[in-house]
Amino acid sequence: MDRASGAGSVEEIEAKQAYAKRGVEARKPVTEAWIDHALPEIDLRSLASRRLRIVGVANYLRDRERSLFGGVEYRLVREPENVYDANAVAVFGQERKVGYLSAAKAASLAPLLDRLGEAAFAVSGCGVTEASARLWVDLPRVPELRKFHR
Question: Rounded CA gap, 108 and 123, in Å?
Fold first, then answer.
């Protein structure tokens, strides 16, 4: 896209026009990111947990991909170098990034995860259902994670 004029490539303009004809706003493409297999895995699924929504899913998955990469098992990976949030915790399903923990929840969990070392933290969750297209992750409760750390 030409930032000065705001014009996009011919393909981008045609795609926007096609969506506009159907009354749908053009969506930006999703970003594909995959888990680093060199990370050791730490299983947190035995800890008492609370189910929370995974945020930012639309940035990483198309609607039709939610059922492929969402599910009952996820990996949490800290992203301390994230330019938007130094406490960021990415969520991976089936090895692909599906979103993040909310900023508030990441802020409370990040220091505890950091103490456990760089790893992919295995947790449970819930994928797409007939009633909802949202993805959910079962996060360890802070007191439980503190005990696990010790």
Answer: 16
Please, what sign has the CA dihedral across residues 114, 116, 118, 122? negative
Map tokens 């060199």 to a residue. Answer: 38
CB atoms near residue 101 (< 10 Å): 25
Question: How far apart, in whole angstroms, are the C-alpha atoms of residue 148 and residue 150?
Answer: 6
Whole-model pTM: value is 0.81
Look up residue 119 and give its two tokens. 């790893």
Ramachandran assignment for 9, one of left (phi > 0), alpha (psi -120 to 50 degrees), beta (any other)? beta
Please enumerate in sequence order all residues whose Cβ is within 8 A of that of 124, keeping only pairs 6 or more positions apart, or say none: 45, 49, 72, 73, 74, 137, 138
The pairing of beta strand 120-126 with beta strand 41-43 = parallel
Closest by alpha carbon to 54, among 84, 16, 91?
91
When pLDDT is cut at 50, 70 and 90, the band that residue 129 belongs to is confident
What values do phi and psi take at 141, rounded to 5? -70, 145
